[in-house]
Amino acid sequence: MHELVFAQEIINIAKSFVPNSDGTIVKSIKLEVGEFSNIVPESLEMCFEILVQGTQFEGAKLDFDLKPLKFKCIDCAEISQPDYPFFVCPNCSSSNVEILSGLDSKVVEIVTLE
Amino acid sequence: MSVITIERKILQKNDEIALSNKKLFAEKGITAYNLVSSPGSGKTSLIERTIEKLKSKINFAVITGDLQTSLDAQRIDALNVPVVQIVTNGACHLDATLVRNAFTQIENEQIEILFIENVGNLVCPAEFQLGEKMKITLISTTEGEDKPLKYPVMFRNSNVLIINKIDLLPFLEFSIAKLKENALAINGNLKIFEVSCRTGEGLENWFNFLLNDAKLNAAKNQA
What we know:
The structure holds two protein chains of two kinds. Chain A is elongated and about 55 Å long. Chain A has a domain at about 1-70 and about 105-115: 2-Layer Sandwich (hypothetical protein PF0899 fold). In chain A, the strands form two sheets. In chain A, strands 2-1-6 form a three-stranded mixed beta sheet, covered by helices on one side. In chain A, strands 4-3-5 form a three-stranded antiparallel beta sheet, with no helix packed on it. Chain A has helices spanning about 5-15, 40-50; strands spanning about 25-35, 60-65, 70-75, 80, 95-100, 105-114. By secondary structure, chain A is α+β, with helices and mostly antiparallel strands. The two termini of chain A are about 35 Å apart. Chain B contains eight helices and eight strands, in the order βαβαβαβαββααβαβα. In chain B, helix 1 (about 10-25) packs parallel to helix 4 (about 95-105). Chain B is globular. At the A-B interface, helix 1 and strand 6 of A face strand 1, helix 1, helix 6 and helix 7 of B.
């Protein structure tokens, strides 16, 4: 259940941008979630809903932008979206690849009601 | 309606603390290794065998994490090296803050290699940097060749794979070749060791690698 930690970190980040005191209503928090990041959106939503009860974020929705795994082959420079979960270049079969997206998860924006 | 643009990694705070741990370890001449695996693959046994063999050559310390009990710390304490048990009370992984707090208990010791034995779990510990130089994943021959495919993030984020319990191979329908093929498809740069912590087979290669790696890292940090 590491989603609970992720949910708390999302709230901590959001708090640093939307302080409790100013009465701003948060409509949604947009997340980029890597396909390869071990985050289950449904679990994260559930944890978030529990943690925000009674805070300025109660009622806010999490908006997920799922990022597919994408990598660049260091040997032949081909950029590909591989067949999960193999990290092998479909062009030259090299396993020497650099991940471009799909590993990390980020908070990208907060939408507030004025 | 207004939009605040942020672009911040969800685990950024943990990553920052991990980076400061890493700097602290480097300043003190310590190389930290984060040992991860399923429960029962042999992390504690590997630590025991390694320290028994190498403690006359290099100074060890261990931070070990479990949901409950200090049984692992008791085993390691018998080897007379500094050890701290983190009881996570149910949390499924160690994080950088837990490691930082545990380290304060041993920070005045002479340490060159710090083993951080993570909670037995192939999922959550993959996401949390602790300040280690590298993650070392263990897998045992009783677990099945398909584990790298089922838990790819852990294998992708590790530098070393140690295949333990090779003494059991005659009794198992387990293909080391297939396991390696799967692991290398996830991470082509994995350095793989085949060992038995029970009989000692294959451990010499691991000992040599570890000593060499820790010494190179210490030299690099001094430069």
